[in-house]
Design goal:
Number of strands: 27
CATH topology of the largest domain: polyphosphate kinase like
Strand content: 15-25%
CATH architecture of the largest domain: 2-Layer Sandwich
Distance between the termini: 37 Å
Number of helices: 21
Radius of gyration: 28 Å
Shape: globular
CATH superfamily of the largest domain: Polyphosphate kinase middle domain
Helix content: 25-40%
Length: about 750
């Protein structure tokens, strides 16, 4: 079959920013879903709010600079929509979603919490005994932290912090010095808990800190009468460019730019409903925001609004605090313990098992402990010579990964850590870890000035007799044991020599610009990943035109790259069946007649964040399966160091296709199907058995190859894994019969 090449125009693509908002709408749907446990619904409201914050700080901030400044788009949208039009559409859709968010809170979550005995009280409605307890807390804890700030010619408006919560009041002098009338603000202390127990140690009755402070405004502004007050919160442009300028010391350069973030332009103002128009006008004028309200001041509206008035608490990320304070298992998802990995029998022989066969780890369903053990064992094993690892995001606090790398260096091993300082919103955390590792003797490098290192790779070099063997871990997710409990990811252990050669070359490239290596198995961005991806899609297109069996299946977070989408359209036109599981942004329009009729796009939003990237090309003996750290986006292809790696062990390949992918495709409870117009719908039940992928994966039966009791007997508990006194020396690889499927 031969088809003339198609020219694709703007209407064939979905706008990236609106697609992201539809993803966040799916998060909000989980908060609205009464079948979810109550505190999990509150959690989804908090996630929705946090997602929206980041969206405004980064994506909306960039569009604003394009629309009203001189910034040119880094990746022009395939749908061709101008920046100002995008801002207008974003504002309209955001207003709808925020309305839904607060309707969910006020009409569903708050009554349900009250029915469960959990209440957020208004200070004004409390009785005297409760007020006595709160008054003590205010005087002893809150009052010393507060700083009341008048705004007049002698006291100019302060620089309001990004995402800080403030009370704004209009005051009228009753006695003493000062203007007859003035504005005043008080920052709600971020160093104190947002939720204040009505009575000390009460875990079911709270007031919001801003409500407590508001009730004491007369004490803060003695001599003045409080005419009215409201709360407000400003979101600022946080997409400070950390890549463009050369610097002698990248670490110090980034530290200085992080400090500059608090002084950037405002991109959104949230205010409590009913705020006095004069206060609103003062804020929008001071921050040079667009306000569509007539006579509200600020910049000309251009039918574009940056002010959101809400009926309820500002900054609903505080619900994370509520969830952590309430000990009610009946209101949460059932707890789970990640099971021992299917492909790993005995952690005490971890290196021996990796030498014997490739091992797949599926988080959070399978334990992240082997990844920590991999580094911790290596740190204490006298046969280990070197450890090399990339770190994009890791856990805060006492990170076991960082601790193990530092211990390895102190034990005299050659340890190299590539710490990505430009991991957005984790820059400060990564700077802290970089300095800690340097003090421990780790060779710390920061990659390239113009690229983020996003690939997840670790390698242990071990002397075994007269030979040296390299053990490799490659992953779709970060080396973070905390997110490994809530993100779905795949990791692969291998001792394959060719793969190890590629990984060694990758680290040499990252640390010393060493190039000209002929990649044999790894596919690396920014040099080869996009080209290879287009080749793999094109190969399926050619096979379909030759009448051969074909298939493309991709599970990823985002699909944005125009060339990749056009290649998928061409494959669809040739008759290739294409199944795309895209959690977040998808700029491809499925179901367009003559263009994408063979493409189906689904999205799963559920208890765990779908983060795995799996790519399958072909059928039967020609089938190729890859895992990757990269999505199909311009930034991943062109501006990051990414790694895509093949899965070659036949047992693991079958597990990925027949277990992981098949279960996700069968989901009819948390799946949404993308329509040609960019909206998402739930699948029709048609009497089918309810299937929920994450639940099915969470409660899968133990592998038939060995009993659960046997596997648990060989698996470490937390004390064993973290004990510095435990016997951690690993033996040389056993001589055992290799898997028949290898």
């Amino acid at each position: 079959m031969s088809l003339e090449p198609q020219t694709y125009s703007a209407e064939h693509f979905i706008n990236r920013e609106l697609s992201w908002l539809e993803f966040n709408a799916r998060v909000l749907e989980e908060a609205e879903d009464a079948s979810n446990p109550l505190l999990e619904r509150a959690k989804f409201l908090a996630i929705f709010a946090s997602n929206l914050d980041e969206f405004f700080m980064v994506r909306v901030a960039g569009l604003r600079e394009q629309a009203f400044g001189e910034l040119l788009p880094q990746d022009p949208p395939a749908d061709g929509v101008k920046p100002l039009v995008q801002l207008q559409r974003i504002a309209a859709r955001t207003e709808q979603l925020v309305g839904q968010q607060y309707a969910c809170w006020n009409q569903a979550i708050v009554p349900a919490l009250a029915a469960a005995g959990i209440r957020l009280h208004k200070v004004a409605a409390l009785e005297a005994p409760d007020l006595k307890s709160l008054d003590k807390y205010f005087r002893q804890i809150v009052y010393p932290v507060l700083t009341p700030m008048a705004i007049d010619p002698a006291h100019p408006s302060p620089r309001f912090h990004n995402r800080g919560l403030y009370l704004a009041a209009r005051l009228e002098r009753v006695s003493g010095l000062g203007p007859a009338r003035l504005f005043a603000v008080v920052q709600v202390p971020q160093v104190l808990p947002r939720l204040v127990p009505v009575v000390e140690d009460d875990k079911q009755n709270f007031v919001l800190l801003e409500d407590l402070v508001a009730s004491r405004l007369p004490d803060l502004f003695g001599g003045y009468r409080i005419l009215d007050h409201g709360t407000f919160r400003i979101t600022r442009d946080m997409d400070v460019n950390l890549l463009e300028q050369e610097a002698d010391d990248l670490l110090r350069s980034i530290e200085s730019r992080l400090r500059a973030r608090q002084r950037t332009e405002a991109v959104r103002l949230e205010i409590s409903a009913g705020m006095h128009p004069a206060v609103r006008k003062m804020l929008v004028t001071e921050e040079e925001l667009h306000d569509s309200t007539k006579g509200a001041g600020g910049l000309p509206s251009a039918d574009y609004n940056e002010v959101y008035a809400v009926e309820g608490p500002l900054d609903m990320t505080c619900l994370h605090e509520l969830i952590s304070r309430i000990d009610r298992k009946d209101l949460r998802d059932p707890p789970f313990v990640p099971r021992p990995p299917e492909d790993l029998y005995d952690y005490r022989e971890l290196f021996a098992e990796i030498a014997d066969h490739d091992i797949l780890l599926h988080h959070p369903y399978e334990s992240f402990a082997p990844v920590l053990d991999f580094i911790q064992l290596a740190a204490r094993d006298p046969q280990v010579l070197a450890i090399k690892q990339t770190l994009y995001r890791t856990s805060g606090g006492d990170s076991p990964v960082i601790r193990a790398l530092a211990e390895a260096a102190e034990n005299g091993k050659h340890v190299t850590a590539l710490v990505e300082l430009k991991a957005r919103f984790d820059e400060a955390n990564n700077i802290t870890w970089a300095r800690h590792l340097e003090r421990a003797g780790v060779h710390v490098v920061f990659g390239f000035m113009g690229l983020k290192t996003h690939g997840k790779v670790a390698m242990v070099v071990r002397k075994e007799g007269k030979k040296v063997r390299r053990y490799v871990h490659l992953s779709t997710g970060n080396y973070n044991p905390n997110t490994a409990l809530v993100y779905s990811d795949l990791g692969l252990f291998t001792a394959d020599k060719v793969m190890a050669d590629d990984v060694s070359a990758l680290f040499n490239f990252l640390t010393g610009y060493s190039q000209n290596h002929s990649w044999q198995k790894l596919v690396i961005a920014p040099t080869d990943l996009k080209r290879r991806t287009l080749e793999l899609i094109g190969e399926q297109t050619r096979r379909a035109r030759e009448g051969k069996k074909t298939r493309i299946l991709a599970k990823l977070n985002s699909l944005v790259d125009r060339q990749t989408i056009e290649a998928l359209y061409e494959a669809s036109r040739a008759g290739v069946p294409i199944e795309l599981l895209v959690r977040g942004i998808c700029c491809l329009r499925p179901g367009l007649p003559g263009i994408s009729e063979n493409i189906r796009v689904t999205s799963i939003v559920d208890r765990f964040l779908e983060h795995t990237r799996i790519f399958v090309f072909g059928e039967g003996t020609k089938q190729q399966i890859f895992l990757s750290s990269a999505d199909w986006m311009p930034r991943n292809f062109d501006r990051r160091v990414e790694v895509m790696f093949p899965v070659e062990d036949e047992k693991i390949r079958r597990r990925i296709i027949d277990e992981i992918i098949a279960i996700h495709l069968a989901d009819n409870q948390r799946t949404r199907i993308l329509q040609p117009d960019g909206t998402y719908t739930r699948p029709k039940s048609d009497g089918a058995e309810p299937r929920r992928a994450q639940q099915d994966l969470l409660f899968m039966p133990a592998p038939l190859a060995s009993s659960c009791e046997e596997r648990e007997a060989n698996w470490p508990n937390t004390e064993d894994r973290d004990s510095p006194d435990g016997d951690r020396e690993s033996k040389s690889p056993k001589k055992r019969k290799r898997s028949a499927t290898k």
